[in-house]
Design goal:
With 189 residues, the chain is α+β, with helices and mostly antiparallel strands. It has 2 domains: 37 residues; 137 residues, Nucleoside Triphosphate Pyrophosphohydrolase. Helix content is 21%, strand content 45%. The chain has a 4-stranded mixed β-sheet, with no helix packed on it. The protein has a 4-stranded mixed β-sheet with strand order 7-4-10-8, with helices on both faces. α2 packs across α3. The radius of gyration is 19 Å and the shape is elongated. The protein starts with 11 loop residues before the first strand and ends with a helix. 21% of the residues are buried.
């Protein structure tokens, strides 16, 4: 994927782009940039698949979270249901699918509350955030090989405390929980 500038400083341009690695989840590129007056820079960037995160409210004051084992940090982490958007899916459909796969629940009401990027200095990737209301238990979890997930219900105040104490480490969950709690409290105050 060749990078084009529209809003760069005068004299900045991409001389070349080289794909150095690709798999189903990530593409890595080396861009040769010209930064004006003969200055050049090799810049490494990644293109990752976009994802959706959904924060399911079980009541006015409680959120359904997952406790997921993450091998990279070798610990069980509290998170919001989240996953990559598959080819042909909308961000909303991916959020609904992840909620059902990771928790066994569906929701009567899904609201998109925004999107963001985790690191636009090196990675092109968009996270989409949704809230879910009026949950319905539809069945059992449908987990992948690498997913070891238990469910928990926490109060908004418990989640705020965990966030404040840096006990929730997953950036997608941190962003989604802060945004969802803010949306929820503004909408239902």
């Amino acid at each position: 994927m060749f990078l084009m500038f529209k809003n760069a400083p005068t004299g900045w341009k991409v001389n070349s782009t080289k794909n150095v690695y690709t798999n189903d989840l990530i593409e890595l590129y080396e861009d040769t940039l010209e930064l004006g007056v003969g200055e050049k820079k090799i810049y490494v960037r990644g293109l990752r698949r976009n994802y959706s995160t959904i924060v399911p409210f079980v009541s006015a004051n409680q959120i359904l979270v997952i406790k997921s084992y993450r091998h990279i940090v070798d610990s069980v982490q509290i998170e919001a249901p989240s996953g990559y958007i598959e080819k042909g899916e909308s961000p909303e459909y991916a959020a609904i699918r992840e909620l059902k796969e990771e928790t066994g629940y569906t929701a009567k009401k899904i609201v998109s509350i925004g999107s963001y990027t985790l690191d636009y200095t090196m990675f092109e990737q968009r996270g989409n955030v949704f809230v879910a209301y009026d949950l319905i238990k539809e069945g059992e979890q449908s987990l992948g090989k690498m997913e070891k997930i238990e469910l928990a219900i926490l109060t908004i105040n418990e989640i705020k405390q965990l966030l404040f104490e840096s006990k929730i480490l997953n950036a997608a969950s941190i962003v989604a929980l802060y945004k969802a709690i803010d949306y929820h409290q503004r909408s239902f105050a």
